[in-house]
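Subject: mismatched residue count in predicted assembly?

I count 695 residues in my input, but I want to confirm that the predicted structure covers every chain. Input:
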Amino acid sequence: MPDLTSQKIPVTVLTGYLGAGKTTLLNRILSENHGKKYAVIVNEFGEIGIDNDLIIGADEEVFEMNNGCVCCTVRGDLVRILDGLMRRKGKFDAIIVETTGLADPAPVAQTFFVDEDVQKNARLDAVVTVADAKWLSDRLKDAPEAKNQIAFADVIVLNKTDLVSRPELAEVEARIRAINPYAKLHRTERCQVALADVLERGAFDLDRILEIEPEFLEAGDGHDHHDHDHRHGHDHHHDHGHSHDNHGTGGLKHYHDEDMQSLSLRTDKPLDPTKFMPWLQNLVASEGQKILRSKGILAFSDDDDRYVFQGVHMMLEGDHQRAWKDGEARESRLVFIGRELPEQTIREGFESCITT
Amino acid sequence: MKEFDPGEAAASIISVTDKVRPIAIGMPVTSVHFLGDQAAFVGAEESVAMVNGQGEISRVSVHGGGILCAASDGSRIVMGGDDGKLVALDAKGEVTLISTDAKRRWIDNVALHPDGAVAWSVGKTAFVRSGKAEEKSFEVPSTVGGLAFAPKGLRLAVAHYNGVTLWFPNMVATAEVLEWAGSHLGVVFSPDNKFLVTAMHEPALHGWRLADNRHMRMTGYPGRVRSMSWSVGGKGLATSGADAVIMWPFASKDGPMGKEPAMLAPLQARVSTVACHPKQDVLAAGYSDGTILMVRLHDGAEILVRKNGSEPVSALAWNAKGTLLAFAAEDGDAGLLAL
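Triage response: the counts match. Full output below for your records.
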């Protein structure tokens, strides 16, 4: 079988609150000498100072699907633009979709889940969020859009780090991690990030859902852990109980975001697929508005293959990935990122799917 | 409106594949139109390949990028491109620039009126230039998904999100809006001017009876409907999007209301393109596996025009007399069949 995934054009969604530095990053991607040609879908013509006939202005039209699901929205303009761009297949290697600073990334991502024609030609590569190190903490308090963009991200470019002190940087990182501990985080000045760290990430590729560990538990990812204060436990912002798995933070000061959290579940006992699948589908059907992203690697009873899934709000896709390797721990792990997640209900539901 | 059930595969049939003159267009093709007896294959970008009765190909450059839309009235093809240009190509191979968008925005849709008027759209704005060369524009609430002229009078249907706007460019009266939730892409009037049908972003059609704006929901498709064609006299609307040609009955005053569509030429592949014969109750259907069939409407009898095993069929057209059928697959592998 030919690898069909690789023939599809990768699409990177570039998001970030107003003034964070999206255009700076875009200009870098377009001007750097990397031998690749990008088609770019932007909101504001003229902000990009590079002449490229593959820069297309978009209207950011969010359409509801006629399927009775209120959070099932797609970017209608994107469907049309991608269709038009496919006329020039071969003239570009990848597509970047820039959203406005106030946009919710979900309709863009969902366009790739629901539209057959879009799926045939293109694949969502990753959601990259540019965040302003100086102002993000404030925006997380007063702008729900900024919080959405952090929660949704696969990659976070924490920009303008030169404008903040080390404690301020630690503070904003901790606030990001309270919402989304799973995204790759890169600290930058003027968006000086290696392009390989933001492009061709394969974050929505089921075959690449290898690890869903919280990012800050990983070693060797470029983080300078010596920078962080060890103030765990006596931070006045932290007024919640320590009930979340993601609080094993290895030295980072951490927060509990009031309304956006991640929830991780794991078990080393096999899951019953006849219970788990209906449970998961019911969960996203009933709580899908709250669940922004979900991912999982699953070990089912009487099944020698790993099963992987991912979802955006109510939309799920999943498949058998590969056989469990000899000696590999057959552990199931799930992650949900969302708003006001009903943790107790989710935990109890998950427990009931474990074979006894 | 009723749903239809997906059908079973067909048995072996009569073949005219040996009568087809094969043509290698050498570029991806998105549509084909006859200008006289020349078949003009519209490429995905930059040029049109004009093929005469002897199978000789001449390439005409029409756009400086992707060709996003095309419409023909038999004497010219009007095309819009991602270079912001609207151009016309005639049977002599001459290209005329009709309009250029000042901001180089994409020309997304185009439609032609029999009296020579041309309509096109850029984003949310529809433009009409009538024979007298005066240009008028009209803005709808969201990006235009499709355009169609009514068969009588100068009236333009503009499809968009949550409905269709019927605009009379030469009248001061406010435009009429036909509402239906969802994103409307293609739009067609029935030849008798009694019905309007849109292809939606969802795999469904929506229709209105224009006398009383009664709704017609035409659902059950596994895929989006990208090709629609009226049979001779407007008795039926043939559509792509399923594993058979779905033919909705429009002969009575109620159109397809309360009726089931006919399902013709079922195969184990999705119908990608349909083209009804201009004089007889026959249609040609192209499939996602490259198959092309001619189908007699009253009994569903099939004749094989092209075997399967290639890229999806992307273009099909009859000449005005109905004596020639032109086709092309997405990769530019094309042919002409003289009947």
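The longest helix of chain A spans residues 273-287. Marking this ticket as 'not a bug'.
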